[in-house]
Amino acid sequence: MKDAFGAPQSLLVLGGTSEIGLATARRLIARRTRTVWLAGRPSPALEAAAASLRGLRPEEDAVTVRTLPFDALDPAAHEETLGKVFAEGDVDMVLLAFGVLGDQGRDEAAPLAAVRVAQTNYTGAVSAGLICANALRAQGHGSLVVLSSVAGERVRRANFIYGSSKAGLDAFAQGLGDALHGSGVHVMVVRPGFVRTRMTAGLSEAPMATTPEAVAHAIEQGLWRRSETVWVPGAMRLVMSALRHVPRTVFRRLPL
């Protein structure tokens, strides 16, 4: 298999400027990946991200990095856009890394803003995820890695709009993994805690905060092990297991 042992030759990143997505691409390029697609809204940042990856390998062992216009909020265009990638050859790994945090206070008062969060994080992901999953199944191999969040494990008052969208995404990805079982396609759900990125800049750090590089390392290890679920950091699994069983009357009083 081209994507054997967690070292794909080709990678499609949905959310081409995602810091976690780019950190993952860098780790995989250092090993075996030589073709990368960065899918995102056309922008100087997307082109700069592509250029940064191209510079990681010497000319005699260059990596091919291409950008692809992709908008999570335009699902009607997803099949045509993503189909062009798979039409050029097999894709060993798809990383679904796009998403928005939103602003809880603003979004509660402006339902259309809340809907935008839900459409980006869930509806857009369902569309792109199914299209990529069907293409991977048709080629008979590959991995679909979905960036979820611990925020979806038990939704908190402080960010229930974002958390609920991630809860939906997580459930969708788990079901998709079950649907693809036995097809040769591996689906892996990644549940990071608080990650220090542009998206969380200015927010108070939660305990066990992590970095894009740490998440990328966990993704690489999960690919190697063919894991179905990856927690980052690993101790977050125990924390969320405990919080999941806290009575609701107590949970809503916790300073989370």
From TrEMBL:
Organism of derivation: Streptomyces lavendofoliae
Gene Ontology molecular functions: oxidoreductase activity
Family under the similarity heading: Belongs to the short-chain dehydrogenases/reductases (SDR) family.
InterPro entries linked: NAD(P)-bd_dom_sf, Sc_DH/Rdtase_CS, SDR_fam
Keywords, comma-separated and alphabetical: Oxidoreductase
Pfam families given in the database record: adh_short (PF00106)
Annotated protein name in UniProt: Short-chain dehydrogenase
NCBIfam families hit by this protein: PRK07904.1 (NF005912)
Source domain of life: Bacteria
